[in-house]
User: What shape does this take?
Amino acid sequence: MATYVLRRFLVAIPVILGITLLIYFMISLAPGDPVTALISPHDAGALGSDWVARERIRLGLDKPWPIRYSIWLNEALHGNLGYSLVTGRSVAGEIVRRLGPTLLLTGTALAFSSVASILIGVVSAVYQNRWVDNLLTTVSFVFVSVPGFFLGLLVIYVFALRLRWLPTGDLSTPGQGFALHDLLTHLLLPALVLGASLTAGLARYTRSAMLETLSQAYIVAARAKGLGWPRVLMRHALRNALLPVITITGLRVPLLIGGSVIVEQVFNWPGLGQLGVEAVFSRDYPTIMALNLLIAIAVVVANLLTDVTYSIVDPRIRYD
Amino acid sequence: MTTTPLSKTQSVTETETQADRGLSRGQSRFLRHRPAVIGALFLLVLIAASIFAPAVVAFQPNKTNISRRNEAPSVQHLLGTDGLGRDVWARVIYGSRISLVVAGVSVTIYLAIGTAVGAVSGFYGGTVDFLLQRLADILLAFPSILLILTFVSLTEPGIVNLFLAIGLLNWPSVARLVRAEVLSLREREYITAARALGASNTGIILRHILPGLTPMLLVTATFGVAEAILIESSLSFLGLGVPPPAATWGGMIRDAVSITILEQRPWLWVSPGVAIALTVLAVNFVGDGLLAASGLQQQRQ
Assistant: This one.
């Protein structure tokens, strides 16, 4: 098992390097450069092209991109992700500050959609092709078709502006100290919106996995033995049906990260997604690189965790 | 979600009757998939409306009218007017052009790349296959919206860059599907027969392998269009799509993000939002119908 995990991790390294190389290459193709982007055209005139050239050398922008990439990589491996071109602050520090809110948001959304999709999937499978199943299927289709930002605005309109039950956004009420209740009320809407489309997709998989399991001979045997339906459903069918669902959930992590970019924007949630959009707008390359690196690692680790979980819950699977 | 069929379709085969004579089995299955038929009709109407937009709307999408700002929906302005007095109905109809064109073109691009890469990879194998698959791994391991965001941020905003951003970064999943199919088809006897008759590799791929992939590609493309519309509108919402004053659905919603507008002038953001949702839903329904019609769903599950 340990060898397997180690081997998988070693295989993942080229993928992670490949992603950073790709992004770095894309950035190197971009027209314009950070120096001219940082100062207004008026200042550029006043400071002169000499100053711009010197600044480019100071920032190392005069070197060809493969060399800049290797410098970046070397520093990143030593824990230095560079400094934001906009704020001048350490990128690593900024990421650490934003990591908490994002993990809280995505974690809650993932937990919510896991539970909800299993419930919906089981109900759909048990009542296959009846009205409950058809209704849930249609609702799932609607939820994968509504864009996250529109769903976000809809729930803000209903629950924050009309009913006034929940806040419209932010991490906490401005001017107040930390309070758990306050945090939870702010978390509820964004987590539900982020989890919604994920739930819709996962529920379909749970449903078909459940249907597949329910047609197995051992289910018939368990029923024939005289076991009650709820017991067969929960102990015999669901536990086996969840195996493929675990894989699919792991594969959805990139989707979750992508969705959080939009949801954080709509709810003004101070996380990594918002940082990413800000960085993209200001062409803050060190921040863009660091975020992409972080997400690449997160996705690879999520895939690895999925495989490991799979081998734990399904003893038939051996990785050595 | 993209591959899961509607439950109703699974019993369709059993209900096929004599009345279906004259249609192929696929066509009759599709026509029996009611959501797919409704979705297809909706899309036909939408495409017609976007092509003949000047005939469908009474106002120019960018025509401002200071004396008629922020009007609620009325007979004259079906969906009201925005803060510059522009007709929202006109902007929704014209906005469909950008969503449909971006989705159509970018999906065509990545379908072409994915098919070519997958066919070459699966047919030739070896080093070419290994390198292409590792490149696919890299792109697949990544949340596409983020890669697209990075790409879009680096280029000047515009419709061509949306084609490229969505088109150049999404081919790996198509390549995977095609490669797997080609691997299984490659060893069939009819391929060996074609080779014995002197057919070239390119000829075999184009004439004997790709036609067999058409149903799968059609289904993939349809779900791809739904996703591309969502990506395009998300980018426009973030301010990274086709720049104003062009009317885009995502952009219209972006313009409406303020507590005052959200609360007091819902027609400004609900209209484009519903337009996106209905269009994507229609495309997904059609995709589901095609999946049922192609008989692929068992394989794909």
Q: What stands out?
A: Chain A touches chain B through 65 residues (CB under 8 Å).
